[in-house]
Write a structure and sequence with these properties.
The complex is a heterotetramer, with 2 copies of chain A (about 260 residues) and 2 copies of chain B (about 325 residues). By secondary structure, chain A is α/β, with parallel strands linked by helices. In chain A, about 25% of the residues lie in helices and about 20% in strands. By secondary structure, chain B is of the alpha/beta class. The N terminus of chain B is likely disordered. The chains are: A alpha/beta (about 260), B alpha/beta (about 325). The interface between A and B is large, with 57 and 63 residues.
Chain lengths: ~260, ~325, ~260, ~325
């Protein structure tokens, strides 16, 4: 990332994540990059995409410049089709109505497990993080997209604590544990788009972002990561994508 | 972890406690101070709302002032009211799925201080698991099967508080979540009548299940309306009177958090709290309690400290949800 | 019942049932006599009594002359405090909020079991009756009052089929079967008020209605029934009770 | 009894069917006849409403005219629509807790005729058990523990369709009810938008759980409203659009039953039906079908047969719920 770019790392994250979403999908989104990306997708290529919030909201439209501070306040309900109790909106995941769960991540490992609970030993943590929120339920019950900054301390060989399960120990271990549906689909970073091997369930690079060298990914990943020779390349963020995004977050609360 | 034998109330004991309650149609309007007497030291207290929404702030304020002790407090997601619980010492044990002031203020330094030092417990469950624990309690069943939380550290750390069960029809493995019947629920609503029939606008969170599950309910409300107006739209009632033990009229009873359609969060106040607890979390939250909890002589005094400008601003933003 | 009376058998049933209900109770009522009796109780001695209907209604007031045809139509919701889904109103029984379940009966046996499903062998019934409705749930989950006509064919030694469980085979058999709460409390007929022995759970006569001879009860009961020597006597329906009742059902749909 | 292996859909199969559905935000307004194509012979069809309330009469009318076969039909409580199912032969297998025209007309002679002769099945479950089967289906769990139905003949007759389970926390014995995920749900509402977002006034019965549990939903509605009007009161939406596959505007779509706040039951019509099926139930219901189901060329033709007087009278009574 040595070239000068006309977008921030967060904007890149939002644009690249948005492109993965498909029209007609039902997307369970967190605030921040996931919400921005899902709203961006609606504005650019997926007008029939539906956003759900864990606070109990189906099909809202975000008012530009009024991004909600969490998924549990009235700003989340603007022009929504329906609001319902938290437990019921989460049960839609269990019932199978949701195509994609989409959230940010603090720490992820080679099998896509996420940690947002403890840094260090849970019995005596160096840092107590806020915890799972809806993350555990979403990642347990549907196909996941995670958007996060690509840093070595965030991409670790094994998370200190599995808050939101990915493929656990890889292979069939997720299903063996009793999680028979869902699983990690994509991890989107400011360097690359990552996927998981069909058999081993190890993270691998699917495509590199513009100007990103494979070594840059290796250097910023805390475990050996597969980068195929024929690895893909993403197209840079387009003007219309950035324009929609900047209209949504003019104060750059989430895209600084 | 909680002793297994007290984790789920045996059904006959749950019924005995419910049968003892005066569930007849009767007025139960009282002050915050009177309502505080419904909470005993050591009680399990469930909070309605979620994060910065419909938090029963005023009732928590009254419990802090009444110097309650050893409360176990559960909520879907905890925000600054969790910091108040820890800082005031009325609870050193919370059960929730997420605990910080809010995403925009980063990780709560107060939560970190008390949990990392071991002074306080923060039992983490998945969001839906907490909801289904209340729901099982509301339904009068001792457990609820679920497909979530399995395989995670969250599950593992809960030890015997969750159990694996096998579906007798499909042989699928599921997790059994223990029913949660709180001793007391604190719920803030937009309007209720003097009997406790409550209407909730907008987001309902887990409040209905909490009210049905709890053994006592303290309702704070922006407004007390006539029973007649409730009876004109019975399909808008969300909590029935017979689950409710106290009704307290408290305008702005969720401030500095929001009450859907009435006011949005008092963001500046939240900024100040975050800033004040950043360097020395313990001193910062103590000062906050001194200023806002112990200082004022009444709830209106608390609102005075928030200031008319902030109240008007939060109200304007709150009402705007109905502007189009 | 040879004397001339200024009330019908149904009116007697309604009045005698109403007197058993207490102020402040929460009563899950069926239509017909139970609803009339509960409304009568509200009007005479129990203003704080709350009626629930299985259609999903809490605390309605019945409009005189507009008795609902079942518990599932809008007439049931007049001036109600709350309406809610069927499953949720029934769950209030399971949660333990309800003091009394109150319904009519087609056939009852010595242990208070009710049959409203089959006359004859269920595999090849002489008569297929409409079935349980909420009856099974109510009788399984709370204390019951049943109001019915006292006829030999209705008071049988053993019902053809247990639709709504009373004390099953008597003794501890109800609790042993897994029904740990609730049970039959009173049966009100046009001849007597009946209760159940604390130990054997057999039906017995608690009080006889005005002018009723013990033999009349024996002759109209299909099993040996205990009538203690010191059996009670009920007071005849009072003017104010009958007046309230006749105002509620001026066309005598349920009190003919 | 139903074969045990098909009683509860394995979770992955349930999810596969759901994933295949087009759940995007799209218009789906169509005619009764078009909507009838969403029901296949042999399907399990769940009916919304209860007894004489919000019965999806118009959709049943369309299914009868389309000569569907071997439907298994479930509902909380069945009224005259159950007689139509048996009489028309589109279903000879119903699952419900109570089946007659209504209390005031005594025991249904049509129900008796078909069940006592063995021509048709009537599987009896407790009222709450049916509701909890739909709810388990709506929640995506394979069973729901319950404290009811135990010890009764109802339970006994269901054989392996219910199972005893032990609570892993309290050791209490409970009954496990199998989840029910109907192939199709027919639900009639007061208003919905073109996408299928539905609002229900008054009594909700089991409709929300049915909609969430089913693999397809056909919504008939008194009125189609704009999506804008739905979005202005999102807390009034009861059924979300993505569960719905067809929206049909059918004024008086529940007649001769009621639609809360719009019309009460057509009592005279019900009296006539009861009278006509008293002596010879089979001939009586066939004549009823000839007159009202096969005779008219359209739903308006059906309403013509009910007559303007009856429609006005039922409407006046229906609207009166809002008179005070």
């Amino acid at each position: 990332m040595t070239e000068r770019k006309n977008y921030t790392a967060s904007e890149l994250l939002a644009v690249m994540s948005a492109r993965i979403l498909k029209d007609g999908q039902i997307v369970f989104a967190g605030v921040g990059i996931p919400l921005l990306a899902a709203t961006l997708a609606q504005g650019v290529h997926a007008p029939g995409l539906t956003i759900l919030f864990e606070g109990g909201v189906i099909g809202p439209f975000v008012v530009p410049g009024e991004l909600p501070p969490s998924t549990n306040e009235q700003r989340c309900t603007r022009r929504a089709n329906m609001v319902l109790p938290i437990t019921d909106v989460l049960l839609l995941l269990q019932r199978g109505y949701i195509d994609v769960g989409f959230m940010g991540g603090a720490q992820i490992d080679r099998y896509g497990n996420l940690n947002s609970s403890y840094i260090g030993d849970p019995e005596k943590p160096a840092i107590r993080l806020p915890g799972t929120g809806g993350g555990n339920d979403i990642s347990s019950l549907t196909q996941m997209i995670v958007a996060m900054k690509h840093e070595k301390r965030r991409f670790v060989n094994k998370v200190d604590f599995i808050t939101s399960p990915g493929f656990i120990d890889g292979g069939s271990s997720r299903a063996d544990s009793g999680l028979i549906a869902g699983g990690m689909f994509r991890v989107v970073t400011d360097l690359a788009i990552l996927a998981f091997d069909d058999d081993t369930k190890e993270m691998k690079v699917l495509a590199l972002h513009p100007g990103v060298d494979p070594d840059e990914v290796r250097d910023n990943t805390g475990f050996d990561i597969t980068i195929p020779d024929n690895v893909g390349r993403t197209d840079p963020p387009q003007k219309n994508e950035l324009a929609v995004l900047r209209n949504l977050d003019p104060e750059r609360l989430y895209t600084a | 972890m909680m002793a297994e034998e007290t984790l789920v109330l045996p059904h006959l004991e749950l019924r005995r406690r419910t049968a003892e309650r005066d569930r007849g149609l009767r007025e139960k309007v009282m002050s915050l101070e009177e309502a505080a007497s419904f909470v005993s030291d050591g009680d399990h207290v469930a909070l309605g709302g979620c994060t910065m929404s419909r938090t029963p702030t005023a009732m928590i304020w009254a419990l802090v002032r009444a110097k309650k002790k050893n409360l176990v407090v559960s909520r879907s997601i905890m925000s600054s009211e969790g910091e108040v619980l820890y800082g005031s010492g009325i609870s050193n044990h919370v059960i929730t799925s997420w605990f910080s002031q809010g995403i925009v203020w980063g990780v709560s330094k107060v939560m970190r201080h008390y949990t990392e030092s071991g002074e306080a417990r923060f039992d983490e469950w998945s969001h839906m698991s907490i909801g289904l624990r209340y729901r099982a309690g509301a339904m009068g069943i001792p457990y609820m099967p679920v497909r979530s939380m399995i395989g995670s550290g969250v599950n593992e750390r809960l030890g015997d508080e969750v159990k694996e069960v096998i579906c007798p029809f499909t042989d699928e493995r599921l997790l059994a979540l223990p029913a949660l019947n709180p001793d007391v629920a604190l719920i803030h609503v937009q309007r209720a009548d003097a009997y406790g029939n409550a209407q909730l606008d907008g987001l309902q969170f887990m409040d209905i299940d909490i009210a049905m599950a709890a053994n006592r309910v303290i309702l704070t409300t922006e407004q007390i309306v006539s029973n007649d107006s409730i009876r004109r739209r019975p399909d808008h009632t969300r909590i029935p009177f017979f689950t409710v033990d106290a009704v307290v009229e408290v305008p702005y009873g969720s401030a500095p958090h929001e009450c859907y359609g009435v006011y949005e969060p008092f963001f500046d106040h939240m900024d100040t709290l975050a800033e004040q607890t950043k360097k020395d979390p313990e001193a910062g939250i103590k000062k906050y309690l001194d200023d806002f909890y112990y200082g004022p002589s009444s709830w209106s005094g608390y609102l005075d400290l928030l200031g008319a400008d902030a109240i008007v601003d939060a109200s304007r933003r709150g009402r705007s949800i109905y502007n189009d």
